Amino acid sequence: MQLTQDQAGDRLTREDHLYDFIVEIDHNSAPRVAGRGSAVFLHLARTNFSATAGCISMRKSAMLRLFAADGPQTKIIVG
Fold it and tell me: Which of helix, strand or coil describes residue 62?
């Protein structure tokens, strides 16, 4: 589903390709609290690893290695 400009929500299509691969990390989902953000993502990093808006970023090669090792019992722990 593509959002129109007047609809609320995240735009996950980006010209810089940072969201070509993303993993949603549970954040503000149970219960959802207005104003606390919609999600934290694991996504691709900028070439200079500049700051994200609260997400975690990694090189494409590292993301592909993570996906190759991923399975039904995989847990990503941020700490």
Answer: helix
